[in-house]
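Section handout 9: paired folding examples.
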Amino acid sequence: MSETTAPSVTFPASSVLGYPRIGPRRELKKALEAFWAGRTTADEVEATAAELRRRTRTRLAELGLATDVPAIPSAFSFYDHVLDATAVVGAVPARFADVVGADGALDLAGYSTVARGRGDDLPLEMTKWFDTNYHYLVPEIGPETTFRYASTRPVREFTEALADGVLTRPVIVGPVTYLALAKATEDAPEGFAPIDRLADLLPVYAELLTDLAAAGATWVQLEEPALVSDSVAVPAEQLLASVIEAYRALATELTRPQRPAILVAAPYGDLGAAFPVLAATDVEAIGIDLVRGHAPAEPVPGLSTKTLVAGVIDGHNIWRADLDAKLAILEQLEGLGAAAVTVGTSTSLFHVPHTLTDEPNLDETLKTWLAFADEKVVEVVTLAEGLTEGREAIHEQLLAATDAVSSRRTAPGVVNPEVRDRVAALDENAFGRGSFDERKVAQAARLNLPPLPTTSIGSFPQTTEIRTARAAFGKGELTEAQYDEEMKAEIRRVVELQEKIGFDVLVHGEPERNDMVQYFAENLDGFAVTQNGWVQSYGSRCTRPSILWGDVSRPKPITVEWSSYTQSLTEKPVKGMLTGPVTILAWSFVRDDQPLGDTANQVGLALRDEIADLEAAGIAIIQVDEPALRELLPLRVEDHAAYLDWSVRSFRLATAGVRPDTQIHTHLCYSEFGEIIGAIDGLDADVTSIEAARSKMEILGDISAAGYPRGIGPGVYDIHSPRVPSEAEVEELLTEAVKAIAVDQLWVNPDCGLKTRRYEEVAPSLEHILAATRAVRATL
């Protein structure tokens, strides 16, 4: 490749890596769920999706992205972009062969079946997308997996936009990342890794690129975030070799105009050693994350023929950018000798809500500090104008951004001296509980539970009636007393159901909680909540992350009244239910003006006060959920120790003030237990529940090998699928658990909370759990 050859096609001066795909009012969610319920047809869902895509293109053009060059990404998904890649390359697991068409394609019903499962056929495993709160569906790849160009959807969506006069840029998960994130099939031989199939996969990508070029696509975006992470199951040396192999096949051997120009985007972190490797390939552009990563200090061989897509605008958080500082970064990049510099986002914008203009209830001063997806697009376009035309061209925008940053720094509540003083006064005694062996004896005497005690994680289904009552209360149509009675009626229902089934430790079902983080955000100082700030978590599941903007404190008790009422209804122990400090941070948009550990300790102290009040009210078991503990783990191993230190300490700060006979539980999601076993041990919780059903108890080996000494509840019911597990299925999972873990450590529970499920699914599932538990107890 010549160092002096200019790119043969121009990349836009401004672009974004992606945009929210669920719709401002969650239109896609509603359409999909209606289809799954049989209330609408696939054609109607397709029509809704097409209209959402058209509205997105129109909106991005209105905000300043060009339509005659591929500034607007084509990055739609019905459920998950990794599942989309699985559909394109035809790698559908054999158990779903009957939903695959003769041409290898999946229709919407088949696609949904692979995502959600059916009967005894488990869906694809779900896990976290790097260090975000998004979940992707893990491909299953074995030596015999057949790859074929099975879906032309990326081409069809490109031509749909072209017919509207918009030249988009198709976005697809790159081949290296696709295989690096995949898991080996159960029948794969020992030592096999999905990345071993790269040579077999690349011809399918080549067919797709050829098809896109024939349709008129001038650029394609291949997403390769695996290159910024040490956490993928591919050794670094092999990963880099795979990059060379992949882009030799797709960029060198497949030449233009047979293919579109290629942008390789690497969001979520620093490319590190992968940057010069990519620069040495024949791809035409490289997208780098300049929020969590950095650019090389000196020119890199090969860069002079490439466009550098500079991700200076944070796609992962909602704070307004300091445009002056971002422009300075962009100006420095021009010294690296790239053929061109494009202003972009660090990640896709699907991690943030649509727009601030849809938030009438947010404080007006706070809104000046924020930028949602639409506002970030404007920032990108503004910076591109400043980079190409000079600072004077955007003088007013630079001043406005500087004023907003200054206002945020000095606003009341951002710094609370009382909170700061309390954190500063902490000593090591605040973080320790004493001997677990002594606690275990005291708790056994107080609780008197049977072997394999049964419980659920916390939430029960949020019915239409619950949501209707909450909405009516919010509108003033119900008094507080009326609303409380509606919630208490649901609590009584939940308690009666659990007692009828025979569970040992009960929960109150959390009917009063709209979301496990937002509920606390609404009751803690330093937070704000949105009205329409929806963000996709997985599939049709959306959340509204709260905004943590100031120092955190608890003005009054939050959960004590509900827990006390529930305990009054039963002789069995009822768990007090709290969300842990790390998860509150992970599932909020968190202030970026101080270290995360400092913010976590503030939240930990607020929760410590709540736990003290629950204990004083007689609650014997208190669960502090940390489903996001693994989620925030940095992508580079060198950063793990510092993160695990502050995250573990914030949990211990919250929980260490209780008596020995008060049992502390925690819950973890998709945690890849083995990676953070030391941290989980460091939490010092008496009982930890963890998702395990969908992976068929893969975690048992890690738990056993680590010699984990405390209570452990590997999940036996996958609540992310509508399937009702059979009694035999649960019994099989429990039998495996008993073989690997001491009986006096084991608890029995679902994978996660039941909020998103229906009672028609939950009641029989819990009955099967209890029946299976009794059967296994009888063998002990």
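Moving on to protein 2 of 2.
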Amino acid sequence: MTDSLPLRDRYLGLIDEIVQLTLQGKISSVEMVYQMLQKSITSGTGEIFELALSERLSTIQNQVDAEKDELKKAKANRSLRAIKTIQTQWQRYAEQNKATEALALAVKDITTAAADERLAVFLRFTDPNQKQPLNSSQLQQLAKALQQFAQLDADIAQISEGITRGLAGWQRLQEHLISWLYEQNRELGFGGVPGENGPWATWAKKVNSELPQALFRSLALEQSALEFAEKRSINLSDWVEIALILQYLQRGLVNWFDQQPYNVQAGSKLSISTYLTFAVIWSQLASGFGNTAAVYGNGGSQMMLQILRNFAQRPYFPLYGGIFASFSGSYLRNALDYLDEPLRKVEGTQEKARILTLLGYSQRALGQYQRSIKFHLQALEIARNAGDRPCEIANLNHLSRTYVQEKDYAEAINYSQRALILSRQAGDLTGEANALVNLGYSEVMQAQQLEQIEPETYEMPINYLEQGLKLLEKLGDIQSKGLCLSSLGIAYLVIGDAQTAIKYLEEGFKTAQISGDLYLQGRNLAYLAEAYYHLQNPEKAIYTGSLGMYLLEQIASNEWRQSAGLLTILQGQIGKEAFQHFLQQERTKIIAIIGVDGYDYIPQLLLRYQQDI
């Protein structure tokens, strides 16, 4: 076998040589086969060897199957066994050399890339969506390998330096990844007094590099990452350093939350919040750093999309929910808006459809109904083309829900019926349950709009809602169950059965607390206030209305005005003094949910509403 032969022929010759030496008894162990492969296969050419091996295996298998002569058949079988030994040792060799080949490929691609593409190429090798992203050990080796080219190119030197600093920063933070959870008997989540505790403040104290320390301090004070990036001037090594630190923090948190068996809902809820928080931060950093250089802006968008694509593939990706509380500070109030612009540059993929679904739901919660419809229609088309049936059905359901908010009940019924038919065809029980809920809810609201007061008019729609609830309880779908309970509560409120409405709305509020959906929490509380108002129970109406108003305003949902309007009417009826007395009575219970600052903010919100009337 000579080096001048084409690679495929060289590898066919190598395979034939090993087979012959085996048949001659000159290869007595699998270790000898492995050593020959190790010596003869050139790094980065594994696919060519695999093709040659597959070709030779097929040829000898055909000989075995076709041969009639017993002696020749026995020889062919010995050759086949030898080939299978080569195949086994090749698999062992390939597994052990994947890391080496990946590293060699990374060095080659980074050093030969155009200057304005080097950062994007580097980020591709750390992308968690790749089959084998480089791990921390491989990254250390990459940094050393790139040092050999440092004198030839300043950018390569900075990437190498950034990797070294980023890994050192992560090493310092690793043991403090979740230590903040146990400070002052804290509960899971990112809440707390800005700047004093929580993860960002903890990490700012532990990292000893200037840029990540400044970023963490800024986030601890609930300041926008966009504003932070706009005020900073950075170089390539700074960028790579912060990229690795944030990437390892995000992955570490998700892995930890995913492994919390004692509370499945809290674990997945916090994982969802982590994905969203870090995606938004990267989107903001992309906008801010993009002013320094386009390559930094593009790199930030690349990081954001890597996170979202990974998130979209998770089993708990919330096709029917979107506003999660645990990681949200005030700087994230309208944060999901930041994800819209970079997504426009992405081709239609299954992941994009799912992310647009999330954005659509969130826009509906904010009261941006036309924007919500636009996102869901885009997602619907992409999901249909990608064959993602659950996502397609989810968007039909979301469109139904959004058209209810727009008071276009005919269109809401149309979309819920389409979702119901498609979900039953596909066997999507979650989609079917949501479609039943939406169909029942849409028909209740349409009957109310048409001023139909006959009880029998509402029997079938409420039956749809109850069917949906039974199915969701069977499925254990917390997010959708919260929506269903809320819908049932509102339906009973519409038909004048406030007592039954309260039962469903209270259960809906508790369910929304478990799932972490702030919008549903606020919405249930808002309608509970209406139900208590109808039952002439001002104390509970003030308690639930105040909480609902506060929670909805905190996520920038315009629906906070619904509760503010009811509370204003109630204050006018019972007088300011009595109103304040009832609010004071509920102070302890209110503080338990939204804290002292939240309680103190309630009168300010009411005043703001009254001044806007």
